[in-house]
Design the sequence.
């Protein structure tokens, strides 16, 4: 074979090796792209799950806030009831004291009446 033919054959071998290496590199790139695509899908699914979880937490917090508002309203109502009962108790105490004074006065009148009738 001539020198040119030999050189051409070597160039063809080198070119063939480069093409083979390039094809293998592209195959690895495709495999890595598939792996990255799967990971992106997994991240997307996890993000959706997290979003659903956040929505549940938000709904729970809204329920807690509503319950707290209800409890606060009941506490205010109970406080008003206690204040009202305290006022009634004070009125009853004042009435009881007044009745006690009247009872003492009646007792004194009865004693005076009894004393005058015994004379």
Sequence:
């Amino acid at each position: 074979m001539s020198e040119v033919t030999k050189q051409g054959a070597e160039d063809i071998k080198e070119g063939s090796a480069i093409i083979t290496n390039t094809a293998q590199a592209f195959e690895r790139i495709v495999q890595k792209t598939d792996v990255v695509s799967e990971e992106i899908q997994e991240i997307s699914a996890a993000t959706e799950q997290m979003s659903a979880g956040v929505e549940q937490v938000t709904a729970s917090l809204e329920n807690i806030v509503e319950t707290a508002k209800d409890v606060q309203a009941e506490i205010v109502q109970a406080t008003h009831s206690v204040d009202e009962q305290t006022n009634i108790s004070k009125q009853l105490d004042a009435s009881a004291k007044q009745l006690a004074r009247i009872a003492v006065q009646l007792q004194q009148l009865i004693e005076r009446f009894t004393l005058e009738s015994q004379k």
In short: Residues 3-118 form the longest helix (116 residues). Residues 12 and 20 are 12 Å apart (CA to CA). DSSP finds one helix and no strands in the chain.
